[in-house]
Structures are given as structure tokens and as C-alpha cells.
């Protein structure tokens, strides 16, 4: 599917060239000849389809491009996070600095080669994709009040301080934390830990629970995180430090 771009540019000749060239290279470019028209198209984008990138002229007939960039960044939701490439005939370094400080992602001085614009667009989209992948693969962290369990890093912190656990203890804690609020029998816990070197006698779970409590409870004798349910098993408290 083509990437959808918004070009806010009052130079009709330049806009026509960019729309045609980028259209031939897999982009759907919507053109606005003024700041007002561009902002209106952005406001309509949740309905008509979001823009991947905004090409913004610095010198518009009804507003300064820097002010438009500032307005875009002040919008709510996805609009505020849309990447902006500024286009300008002014080559003043300060314009570039101010533009970047206001939230522009890139800056291209006129006249420019269409191929250079295309290269910058593709580079920006690659960075977006890499950021999205990094965000989606971010470490899975479970937080329960003052307790933090990082499932990927396999670390446990209480009040920001590391609480060392053996591999088996961590796996047992993670199995309960991922099912917080549910009573788990010894058999269910053993089943969740398949593949571990387990004792045949299921009461070994009780021993490991006791060790866990000495690490993560404020008072192991009066546990508030790992609670015993007589005759049923254990429950990891969903709400802690309330």
C-alpha cells in the first residue's frame, strides 16, 4: 500500500513536480497550498487516513512554517507525532536550528533534487519502522506496587533494588505473577514449570515459595504478595502496597 504524505507548499509548480515524481515511486501525496488548508487536511486525517510524513514549506502565504510546525506538534494523538520535513528557500542555519527545535525531523533547502527528497523520505520511514519494531519488542515488565518483574531480563526489583533469585525461583515467581489474582494449586504450578528439574514430591513447591517470600515480602511471616489459600494452593496478589 502506498505511503500517504501531506505536502503544504504554495509553489504550485514545485508541488506538481513532487506529487508526480513521488507518485511514480509508491507515494500518495496530498497537496495543500496554504497553512490553513494543510491543517484542515491534518484534522480530517483520522477519518480520511493518517499521513506518514508531512512536507512543510517554511514560507507560506498565510503563516510562517515554523508556526505551523509548532501547531502540528501541539495537536493531540497521532497527528502530533507525524514526522515533518521542512522545505525552504532560505538557507539560514538558524532557520534550520529553530525548525529542528520546534519538532521538525529533517530539513531540505530549495532547490532540491527529487531523488534527494525521495531518499530522505525512505530513510525517515526506515527509522520509523525501526522505532516501531524496537517498541514492540521492548522488555515485558510486570509491576505490582513496589515490585517489578522484568520477564525478558529475568530480574526482580523491590523499591528499585535488585532481588537476586535462582533460575527456578524466578520461573516460579513469573508463573504466578503472570496469573496474578488466580489461585493456583501445587499441581498447576508444577505444570507451568514443565521442563524444570522438579522434585517428585509436590510439597517442594512449598519450600520454594518460602524462599521467594524471604526475598520479596516485607515480612515473610505475614506475606502480602504470595498468599496461601488453605486447601487450594497459592495466589499472587494482583493489587499490592495499596
Task: Give a brief description.
With 242 residues, this protein is an alpha/beta fold. The chain has helices at 12-23, 35-48, 65-74, 93-101, 114-136, 167-177, 186-192, 204-216, and strands at 3-8, 27-32, 53-57, 84-88, 106-109, 141-144, 147-150, 155-158, 161-162, 183-184, 226-229, 233-236.
General description of the model:
The protein has eight helices and twelve strands. The chain is of the alpha/beta class and 242 residues long. The chain is 41% helix and 21% strand. Strands 2-1-3-4-5 form a five-stranded parallel beta sheet, sandwiched between helices. Strands 6-7-8-9 form a four-stranded antiparallel beta sheet, with helices on one face. Strands 10-12-11 form a three-stranded antiparallel beta sheet. The two termini are 49 Å apart. A hairpin with a 2-residue loop joins strand 8 and strand 9.
How confident is the prediction overall: mean pLDDT? 86
What is the number of helical segments per DSSP (H or I, 4+ residues)? 8
Helices and strands, in order, run as EHEHEHEHEHEEEEHEHHEE
- Strand numbers in spatial order across the main sheet: 2-1-3-4-5
Shape: elongated
Provide the low-confidence segments as ranges. Answer: 195-201
Helix content: 40-55%
Distance from N terminus to C terminus (CA atoms, Å) equals 49 Å
Radius of gyration: 28 Å
Amino acid at each position: 500500500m502506498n505511503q500517504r504524505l501531506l505536502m503544504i507548499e504554495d509553489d504550485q509548480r514545485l508541488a506538481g513536480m513532487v506529487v508526480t515524481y513521488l507518485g511514480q515511486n509508491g507515494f500518495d501525496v496530498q497537496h495543500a497550498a496554504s497553512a490553513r488548508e494543510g491543517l484542515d487536511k491534518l484534522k480530517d486525517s483520522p477519518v480520511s487516513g493518517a499521513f506518514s510524513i508531512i512536507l512543510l514549506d517554511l514560507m507560506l502565504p498565510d503563516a510562517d512554517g515554523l508556526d505551523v510546525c509548532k501547531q502540528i506538534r501541539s495537536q493531540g494523538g497521532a497527528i502530533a507525532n507525524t514526522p515533518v520535513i521542512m522545505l525552504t528557500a532560505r538557507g539560514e542555519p538558524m532557520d534550520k536550528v529553530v525548525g529542528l527545535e520546534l519538532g521538525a525531523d529533517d530539513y531540505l533547502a530549495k532547490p532540491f533534487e527529487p531523488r534527494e527528497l525521495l531518499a530522505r523520505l525512505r530513510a525517515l520511514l526506515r527509522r520509523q519502522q525501526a522505532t516501531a519494531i524496537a517498541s514492540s519488542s521492548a522488555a515485558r515488565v510486570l509491576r505490582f506496587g513496589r515490585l517489578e518483574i522484568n520477564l525478558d531480563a529475568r530480574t526482580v526489583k523491590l523499591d528499585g533494588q535488585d532481588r537476586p533469585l535462582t533460575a527456578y525461583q524466578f520461573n516460579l515467581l513469573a508463573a504466578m505473577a503472570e496469573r496474578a489474582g488466580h489461585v493456583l494449586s501445587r499441581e498447576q504450578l508444577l505444570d507451568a514449570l514443565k521442563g524444570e528439574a522438579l522434585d517428585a514430591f509436590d510439597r517442594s513447591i512449598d519450600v520454594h515459595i518460602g524462599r521467594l517470600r524471604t526475598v520479596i515480602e516485607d515480612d515473610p511471616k505475614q506475606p502480602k504478595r504470595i498468599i496461601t489459600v488453605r486447601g487450594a494452593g497459592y495466589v499472587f496478589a494482583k493489587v499490592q502496597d495499596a
